[in-house]
Amino acid sequence: MDTVVASPRLYSLGRYPAWVMTDRPLRLRFAPSPTGFFHVGGARTALYNWAIAQREGGTFVLRIEDTDEARNQPEWTQGIIDALAWIGISSDDEHFEGPYFQSTYADAHIAAATRLYEAGAAYYCDLTGDEVQERAKANGKPGYDGYSRDRGLEAGPGRVLRFRVPEGTTIVHDLVRGEVSFDNFNIEDFVLLRGNGSPMFLLANVVDDITMRISHVVRAEEHLPNTPKQQMLWNALGVEPPVWAHVPVLVNEQRKKLSKRRDKVAVEQYRAEGFLADGMVNYLMTLGWAPSGDTEIVPWSRVVTDFRLEDVNHSPAFFDLKKLSAFNAEYIRALSLDAFIEACAPFLLAPDVPWNPEHFNPVVFTAMAPLAQTRVTRLDEVVAMVDFLFLVEPPIDEAAFTKTMGGPNARELLSEVIAAYGTAEWEHEALKETLEAIGEGYQLKLGKAQAPIRVAVTGRTVGPPLFESLVLLGRDETLRRLQAALQRAGATPG
RNA sequence: GGCCCCAUCGUCUAGUGGCCUAGGACACUACCCUCUCAAGGUAGCGGCACGGGUUCGAAUCCCGUUGGGGCUGCCA
Q1: CB contact at 8 A, A184 and A167
Q2: Where are the alpha helices (H) located in A140-292, listed in sequence order?
Q3: Active site includes A257?
């Protein structure tokens, strides 16, 4: 049995009203439904819960809310677990508990509903959805009008069980928003059990939270309107409600809530594109919150010590891919060379790589790695950065070729370089000085002179430093590509 | 429509009545460095939505306006 008491440090700043105090063991939960890829918004909520659980010695409960038969797929459940582990929320950690599956608690949900019915806190209603709407229309007030409140209906096929919302006001105590007050007059008698007897989200969610002894419900703001209903349920079930905390939603450029349909929200996808978990975690934490001090790039250990729900911002936060990328690039650069090389491996050895896998040379890549590390924002970019080293015929960018080879002296310069590189010491300083000298003969600075060589060898105008690249490519291959480019230039009129 | 939430540079934020001439980060611009591109360095651009109060003093407190968002299912 868990006997740990929520650390007073959670409320240590001394400016909190009595209602945030609870002497229940600190137990938080993250309760996603497995209806698709793992959402970045969900990841942030999970991280907020996780940070608190770790600092306060509390428990993070993972509960999979798999009660929507139509939309649930088992593979999404594993996806959630894997994605959580990727961002550091791992079942190996002592603060982690679960996963539990909501579908296995249906009996408890129904039992709770029955208790509510027997206590008179809920009643059955035989109106169909359409009928409810018709009445609402006739009443001029949206929602269910309490038609069956006093009809004394028994349970029966097609009859839903509705909660009898009491008169009065429901005040929700929220750690990020303070007191939020709802007039019960505006809350309809909501459905607990469907016509087929299955429990609804509101009920299942509350019953599970009670069963799992959840002390703090930290979730996205979109649930705030549900909260008075759930709080009434806690009370009706005879349990003191938890401490609530509703964190702002994540929005897109149009300032709409991030949606699976419109926006790129899958954590798995970011991972596949070469975003680092640490960078992702760090960025996600700064959406609605900032660590103290004047840098936002902080290790998770700092997040754990600094993060406070009470400091979370109240307004929606824009999920900015540019800033995420900047964080990611910074985290990539902070990697040790070995770690960087290791992190690149999955991308270099992927099946969709443009070169023949047999031509990939890890030694060559290792030599190129430090030059690539400061030049990529995501790990998957490394492929295009080094492809010319492993491709037999790197594709030539047409525009780049005409631009750099079109100059009056390009072909002459190229042949001179070919001649000189045939005998030059194959070392980057020597290669550089050789080209520099040849360029001078044409009044070209190195910056200009290197362009046609680069395009001839790599197919592009931009890329890693040229002479190091040539060294790695080798004399023979370099010469071969320079020759090919010369021929190609000769074949082009002008 | 109703209920609820929110409002500091373009964006994420610091700020909890005097340390604010409002700080940092991303983005953007310029310059330096430089074999391209990056990285790095320096500088710059840019904000308290508006209107009323309260106060000696307000980005910070109150009210209103405007603007945004969330919810409004026998989905979760």
Answers
A1: yes
A2: 201-211, 227-236, 267-272, 277-285
A3: no
Q: Which nucleotide is nearest to A34 (CA to C1')?
A: B76
Nearest to A16 by CA among A287, A314, A308: A308
User: C1' nearest to CA of A225: which nucleotide?
Assistant: B71
CATH class of A398-491: mainly alpha
Q: State how far the Cα of A384 lies from the Cα of A153, in Å rounded to an integer.
A: 69
Whether CATH 3.40.50.300 fits A109-200: no
Nucleotides of B under 7 A from a protein CB: 1-8, 10-16, 23-27, 35-40, 68-76
* pLDDT tens-digit series, residues A381-402: 999 999 999 999 999 999 999 9
Active-site hit among A260, A322, A323, A403: A260
- Look up the CATH architecture of domain A8-101+202-248: 3-Layer(aba) Sandwich (3.40)
Token digits of residue A455:
């395009």
User: Which has more pLDDT, A52 or A75?
Assistant: A52
Query: Per-residue pLDDT tens for A223-251?
Result: 999 999 999 999 999 999 999 999 999 99
Helices (H), A66-177: 74-86, 106-118, 129-139
